[in-house]
Amino acid sequence: MTVIVEKNVDIPLRDGVRLRADVYRPNDGGRHPVLLQRTPYNKELWPITAMTLDPVRAAAAGFAVVIQDVRSRWASEGGVFFPYVHERDDGHDSIAWCAAQAWSSGRVGCYGLSYMGGTSWLAALSRHPALGAISPTTAPNDFWRNHFWRGGALNLGTLAMWALRAIGPAALIRARPEPASFGPPLVQLIDDIDAFGDILAALPLERFAPAHPEADDFVPFFYEFLRHPAPDDWTGSVLFSDRHAEVTVPSLSIAGWHDLLLMGDLEHFAGMRANAGSEQARRHSRLVIGPWSHGMFGNVVGEVDFGFRANGLFLDLKEDLTKLQLRWFDRWLNEAANGCEDEAPVRYFVQGPNRWREASDWPPPNRPTSWYLHAGGCLAPQAPATGAGADSYVYDPAEPCPTRGGNTLLPPQYPAGPVDQREVAARRDVLVYTSAPLARDLEIAGAVSFELVAATSGPDTDWMVKLCDVHPDGRIVNLCDGVVRASLRDGRQRCLLEPGAVTTYTLDLWATAAVFRAGHRLAVLVTSSDFPRYDRNPNTGELAHTATRFEPALQRVFREAGRASRLILPVVDGA
């Protein structure tokens, strides 16, 4: 089938703003279901817009595909861009336009990764009757809990990278259309992006020069985010924030173990299964979890090759991501009897053996199992029996522990995913606890957490914990991690510490599925910074973004009877 491509098609909105889209559709004169993607990253940037679904293949398979620049971005009209605030209503109006076209069957599906996944969820809130299904990939849910903040710490690296690199250049040119006016600041912006770690070290963050606090037509959202260091009505209103009861269509969520939006995807699936606004959506929503990092669907993630079965072009040697989603939309937009609804609700990738598994829900059945910190840097399943014990280090925000892997979105010099942690483990401000070599394989699948009993000499500080797999050759490969800002330990409102007080924290290390092979060892790394991934806690009690000075803090981690720090793993028996 030949395909028609129409460029910069006008889509009018209720307030008179006109968005523009590229349309890919079959050249057969027929009426076809429509797949809508709404992006801030340029509808013509195929490395992003076609990353998980090829629009030409989709059109050749009988779908019309509409890829649209969102309000205030690229070819679309609008004022200054601010993330997410218009996406529900603009998504509704765009769905209405798609359904009304002469080449449309009147049925629409929304799809896309990252921000585009967010626009899919927000459009679903509008409950337009033409919407039949959504397929959000690595999509955000809660703004404060697991998107631009985590555990009270600001995802500074992601925010700065996104503002300066993804949004900044086009925003700068849009605000200064004459080359003579945008040329010099564009060169400076590129220089700032190239000096990423250095520019983020400047204080205070609230006057972060590369984002131009004096310019309200550049990236003003950067500073607005800084003004909300604790969850409030604003952070709860900007994004989706667990509103699954308002969604009536089934969702196919595609997630990655090393993706910075992993927990958003897991929360979306759980919310749809439990609370979606229709029986169809509750019963038929689906979840696929690969070993991927953000926007990367190959088999090599970080420093680990997970094999061809992990690759988004192969997917267990059965299909690619495009075919997976076309089957999904064929079922719900064309009512095709293709068996989608009979497949397992969850498909997840187990790291180590590098194989896909199916489950009726997430997580699969597991047994929470504790591993305790002991003297001498030991990690063991037995709780400490007697005696006092603590390990200590000094956290100096002026010399933070550098980011090495994890669920990140940072420039290439900070690779995401699983990477060797030996450089980090050798630092004085990192405590390392390692198990004995395992006598047999240990499989985990589900939520991982860490109960930390600790004290600090300051009124506030941060705690970071990484779970790692120690290979027989000595490599220490991170699997998942967590963070908590002490003053936001309850996740609701800021409350400073009494210096020296022993406090128990629960760190959410999110979730994973992996097998620790026999002969390998488990390791837990404890520290207080991960920069530039997170902003640095100044240890003074000041807000991190307003601080102009740092103070070192003495950190103590307890490992004694009655005050035992422990790792809690979701152990799968008999897998």
For this structure, what is the CATH class of the largest domain?
Answer: Alpha Beta
The CATH architecture of the largest domain would be 3-Layer(aba) Sandwich
Q: Calculate the mean pLDDT score and round it.
A: 97
The poorly predicted ranges are none
Structural class: alpha+beta
Count structural domains.
Answer: 3
Per-chain topology:
Blueprint: E1 3-12, E2 18-26, E3 32-39, H1 46-49, H2 55-60, E4 64-69, H3 87-100, E5 104-113, H4 115-125, E6 131-137, H5 143-146, E7 149-150, E8 153-154, H6 156-175, H7 179-194, H8 196-200, H9 221-226, H10 233-238, E9 252-258, H11 262-275, H12 279-284, E10 286-293, E11 300-301, E12 304-305, H13 315-318, H14 321-334, E13 346-350, E14 355-359, E15 367-374, E16 378-380, E17 390-395, H15 422-425, E18 431-434, E19 442-456, E20 462-470, E21 476-485, E22 503-516, E23 521-527, E24 553-560, E25 563-564, E26 566-571
Parallel strand pairs: 3-4, 3-5, 5-6, 9-10, 10-13
Antiparallel strand pairs: 1-2, 2-4, 7-8, 11-12, 13-14, 15-16, 15-26, 17-24, 18-23, 19-22, 19-24, 19-26, 20-21, 20-23, 24-25
Helix pairs in contact: 3-4, 6-7
How does this structure look, described?
This protein is of the alpha+beta class. It folds into 3 domains: 3-145 and 237-359, Alpha/Beta hydrolase fold, catalytic domain (Rossmann fold, 3-Layer(aba) Sandwich), CATH 3.40.50; 153-228, no CATH class; 367-571, Galactose-binding domain-like (Jelly Rolls, Sandwich). The chain is 23% helix and 30% strand. It has 15 helices and 26 strands. The strands form 6 sheets. Strands 15, 16, 17, 19, 22, 24, 25 and 26 form an 8-stranded antiparallel sheet that branches. It has a 6-stranded mixed sheet with strand order 1-2-4-3-5-6, with helices on both faces. A 4-stranded mixed sheet has the order 9-10-13-14. Helix 4 (115-125) links the parallel strand 5 and strand 6. Helix 3 (87-100) crosses helix 4 and helix 6 runs antiparallel to helix 7 (179-194). The two termini are 46 Å apart.
